[in-house]
Amino acid sequence: MTLPILITGGLGFIGSHTAVVLAEAGVPIVILDNQSNSSPKVLDRLAKLDVHPLEYVHADVRDTQALDALFGRHTFGGVIHFAGLKAVGESVAQPLRYLDNNVLGTLHLLQAMERANVRRIVFSSSATVYGDPAVVPIPETAPLTATNPYGRSKLMCEDALRELFAADPRWQIAILRYFNPVGAHESGLIGESPNGVPNNLMPYITQVASGQRDYLQIFGNDYSTPDGTGVRDYLHVMDLAQGHLAALRSLASDMPKLLTVNLGTGQGVSVLEMVNTFARVNSVQIPHRFVPRRAGDVAQCLADPQLAKQVLNWQTELSLESMCRDAWRWQTMNPLGFAS
């Protein structure tokens, strides 16, 4: 039998979709989540999708006792580490909270893994580690920096993983630098359900489209981009989830390795393009207003995805239209997210 995979933050947006992909592939899973930005109702939704974790643990990755007890109950084949705070604007306002949660949380997890002799991890990183990129599309060899505390916390975790591998090459590590995941599972049962005001574009668009919010604020229309709005690399969350399965498979040999790959489409989409595509595909109106740029944002950020294709045999398959349709299906079926 395949050894189970621990998914930290497994009730969150990306974690829950990855749980579905692993379950479909026959990989047993255990989920740990502190529910700081997720809902216990996700477990019920996963069950409807025939996803049945061996165990769900309501705990924080900084809880050493809970981690040691969990690693004592299961022999894990590896860990996918999603648990972390992820809002750029919030990180600028609360930098210490981000360092505490993201960096210390990762260190506590790695220490618990080491104590349990589990040395295979897929780490949820971010394109924010490239800062304000000098060249786009961005290759993995681009200089690393950060323009906000969120990005800095991810970069510090990456550095810790690289140093860990250098000190102990028994580790098998995949660092996945996500670009901008959007969309939802095609069933409409799981999707992005932020607490309070959304920090990401797509859930804000869906809430405007449904009438929950009066209009979308577009932060900046004076960037050096074709229409003046920020350009990002949006990928469907189900494609991103498949990327984690591909990373696990790549690490599955007994060979030690350290992989660092971008997960993105390589196609840039501006905020206005996203708004217009969503409106067209779903036949809805998206009122919007331009407001000043947001601290920590960059003009363009899109992936060079070639390395992921070479080393993971992975590439995106779902279109921008699919992202918009699936996000809108999730919103209309769950107008208040998991509180519906």
In summary, what is this structure?
With 340 residues, the protein is α/β, with parallel strands linked by helices. It has helices at residues 13-24, 41-48, 64-73, 88-93, 95-115, 149-167, 201-209, 237-251, 271-282, 306-312, 320-333, and strands spanning 5-8, 29-33, 55-58, 78-81, 120-126, 172-178, 180-182, 216-219, 231-232, 234-236, 257-263, 269-270, 288-291, 300-301. The strands form four sheets. A seven-stranded parallel sheet has the order 3-2-1-4-5-6-11, sandwiched between helices. The chain has a three-stranded mixed sheet with strand order 12-9-14.
The whole-angstrom Rg is 19 Å
**Helix percent band:** 25-40%
Shape: globular
Number of distinct beta strands: 14
* CATH fold assignment of the domain at 5-182 and 235-264: Rossmann fold
- Widest beta sheet: strand line-up: 3-2-1-4-5-6-11
Task: Report the biggest beta sheet as strand number plus sense, adding barrel if it closes.
Answer: 7 strands, parallel
For the termini, the CA-CA separation is 38 Å
The assigned CATH architecture of the domain at 5-182 and 235-264 is 3-Layer(aba) Sandwich
According to CATH, the homologous superfamily of the domain at 5-182 and 235-264 is NAD(P)-binding Rossmann-like Domain
SS content category: alpha/beta
Mean pLDDT: 95
Q: What portion of residues belong to β-strands?
A: 15-25%
Q: Helix and strand string, N-terminal first? A: EHEHEHEHHEHEEHEEEHEEHEEHH
* SS summary, helix count: 11
**Low-confidence spans: pLDDT under 50, at least 5 residues?**
none
CATH class of the domain at 5-182 and 235-264: Alpha Beta
